[in-house]
Amino acid sequence: MPSSAGHTTATAVDRRGFLRTSLGASAGLVAAPAFVTWLGAADAKAASGPAAFVDDYRSNVVANQTPETNAVVRILGGMAEVWKTGDAWDTGSVLDREVLRANMRYCARLTQSRTEAQAKEAFLYDRQHQSYAMIGGLGPLAGPYREGAKAVTSVTGAPDGTPPGKISDTLPADAPAGSALGAGSHDSDLGRVAELVDTVRGPFASGNPAKFAFQYPRPWRMNEDSEVVDTGRRDALGYPVYDSEVVVAPQLLRQRSENAQEDGGFPSGHTNAFHLAALAFAYAVPERFQELVTRAFELSHTRITAGMHSTVDVIGGRIMATALAAAALADPANAELKTAARAQALSYLTRRTGTTADTLYAYAHSDAADPYADRGANARAVGPRMTYVLPRRGRKDPLTVPKGAEVLLETRLPYLSAEQRREVLRTTGLPSGYVLLDGFEQWGRLDLFTAADGYGAFDRDVTVTLDAAAGGFHAADGWRNDIEGDGGLAKRGTGTLTLTGRNRYRGGTVVEAGTLVAASPEALGLGDVRVTGGTLRADRVLRVRGSYVQERASRLELTLRGDHGPALTVSRRVLLDGGVLALRLDAGRPPVAGTTVPVLSAPGLRGRFDRVELDSDTLRAVPVHTADGVSVRLVRR
């Protein structure tokens, strides 16, 4: 915050190395981090502008606890708009009462209504190694991964009550030779993947420097107004009793830190670890990208359920993890490792599951019992937890994607260029106006769950090329977002792209090669559609809001349904310069021989298809071209 008018600013370093800032005698000492100094550009570094996070992430060490010196503290600067750090851990003060009161009320309600099962779950993910916990996001691939990585844990359940002492995840006595905690052994069949996870969670990824800098206490130490009130009493376990309505899970009472000065709540270290591991796994196994992201949000939420962290703590942990994962993955020093980890994961998992690069995705989503099998449920779980209690206060600032963030989608959208992946992140990002998310470089506005489903808008024309020979997402992918914008889409290459959203982009659609699948009636937006090569396939009834043009050496695939209207409705004129019309009979409601079925309807039609095909051994389709559409008469062969 800029210093108030008429106040002078001075700084000093206390015995723990914290930078303190004084705003004149009337203000007294307030804790740094020295946001006043930084935002006021009082030194040469601030004046020249701070370095991009991905270039400066190695500054995140305990010796650096100011935004000028620590990149993590800098990107978490939004916290300084709601909380002013004090000169000791329990002397901070509230700057935004609306946010922090809502924060504490949410924590109190959640912990007071917590079930015994939720308390045990919170204990499990508090004590289990966070990287191991994230393996569960691999779904049907989790078992093969644990076996291949030799990943083990000693924390597999929770006690009914409070355990007698502290519990840590250790190597089980009966673990197979060569086993390791967390993501697994570096000497295993999946050693490069385990190494990637450990590298992303490396020495510059700790939340402790930021905890020391902000000194925002744990929720169980604060009352509704985020004030620390020590009642002077001790509980049966010998811990101080604070005036707080937040109820810590019984299983975790002895797991709490006894040193409040070094036990800050913001940002949540477990949340940071969960998201770091999730994004490292997602890079190596992008077939489970969204599910891993969902699990990171789910496990992070247990920190609030446990009573160990508040919503702002968890949001801060996610923000720092997003930036740190991007920095580690973008670091040239890790280039060989990340490539090797992706290749090793693909090779091992396809071999272990009897799949190929083209079929691994289907296998990875084949288990109906998978808790993350429902993409809609995943989206509903993630969405509210992006912001929790934060109100949106009306700002409409465009998002500039932070430098290097595009690497997070490098294996999930490998057929896009780096600049295109940045556009995906920009057009799927959260709106501005959320305090904490609007900090330096705005890492908190990135929505990786939504970005995994492709563009949110075509603000300029987009050309996408998929290569069937390259396999995996290079060969076939789907964009499930509702796409807006003035731009259009050109589909090239031999691969297949599927659009499933209710799209309203206005720049039109061109199919030049390969296959474009329209999986919803509004998939092709509001513009004209041209099929100059390749195949346009509609899995459902399709509407083209503009004109429709089909040229030679191209193919239109539609489904015929009995007692139904046209499979394709065009709002403007249709021009057919040859090409193939390929028809499939609907399995549930197929039309019968002797009927005439409408296929294409438009205000005006000129030209005709070169050939009409029908995938039936007993029927053939005789086309009927008119001035306003195409029908087929079904006759027996």
TrEMBL record:
Keywords: Signal. SMART domains: acidPPc. Residues 190-329 form the Phosphatidic acid phosphatase type 2/haloperoxidase domain. Residues 153-186 are annotated as: Disordered. InterPro entries: Autotrns_rpt (IPR013425), PAP2/HPO (IPR000326), PAP2/HPO_sf (IPR036938), Pectin_lyase_fold/virulence (IPR011050), TAT_signal (IPR006311). Transmembrane segments: none annotated. This is Autotransporter-associated beta strand repeat-containing protein. It comes from Streptomyces levis.
